[in-house]
Amino acid sequence: MLHLTCQVDYGDPRVQAAFGLRQGKKEQHLTPESVEEWAEVIKEWSDRYGDMVSGWWFDGGYPHLGFDDSMASTLADAVKHGNPKAMVSFSAIMGPGRAFEAEDFTAGETDQPFNVMLASRWQEGSQWQVLTYIAKQWGGRDTRFSTP
């Protein structure tokens, strides 16, 4: 499984310029054109790796950045070009909900994993899963849960 962002690296001004985005270390408002260009890169990776990659987890597909269903479909089509059976997810919301129609499984980000219990393995047509952290915060080295 690969972890990617829904946009090119926003810490590299050369990459931003190549994709026609403003330069600066911050998230960019996404356009259909910039997502199409990014999808071409991803499609090349998908073709190269084929069925060696069975899942793609995209971070940063936030509606406040302009990311929408059509952009999610564009990226999903790119990852499935080299492996039609590949699964894709987009991190856009907290919790087990489905963010976009093109999503095969939910991103499932949550701060409270024990508060998430669904009645079925499917959430609005997508396989649900939970992504959380063991530490007291994302990226921490301590542990927030004790063993029973």
Architecture overview:
The protein is α/β, with parallel strands linked by helices and about 150 residues long. It has one domain (about 1-125). Helix content is about 25%, strand content about 10%. It is built from 3 helices and 5 strands; from the N terminus they run E-H-H-E-H-E-E-E. The protein has helices at about 15-20, 30-50, 70-80; strands spanning about 1-5, 55-60, 85-90, 120-125, 125. The protein has a 3-stranded parallel sheet with strand order 1-2-3, covered by helices on one side. A two-stranded antiparallel sheet has the order 4-5. Helix 3 (about 70-80) links the parallel strand 2 and strand 3. Helix 2 runs parallel beside helix 3 (about 70-80). It is globular. The two termini are about 30 Å apart. The mean pLDDT is about 85.
Tell me how many strands there are: 5
C-alpha Rg (nearest Å): 16 Å
Mean pLDDT: 87
Low-confidence stretches: none
Instruction: Give the strand order of the largest sheet, numbering strands 1, 2, ... along the chain.
Output: 1-2-3
**Straight-line N-to-C gap:** 32 Å
Total separate domains: 1
Instruction: Tell me about the largest β-sheet.
Output: 3 strands, parallel
Helix proportion: 25-40%
Order of helices and strands: EHHEHEEE
Count of helix runs: 3
Write the layout of secondary structure elements.
Blueprint: E1 2-5, H1 13-18, H2 32-49, E2 55-59, H3 69-82, E3 87-90, E4 122-123, E5 126-127
Parallel strand pairs: 1-2, 2-3
Antiparallel strand pairs: 4-5
Helix pairs in contact: 2-3
List keywords for this structure.
148 residues, alpha/beta, three-stranded parallel beta sheet, two-stranded antiparallel sheet, 26% helix, globular
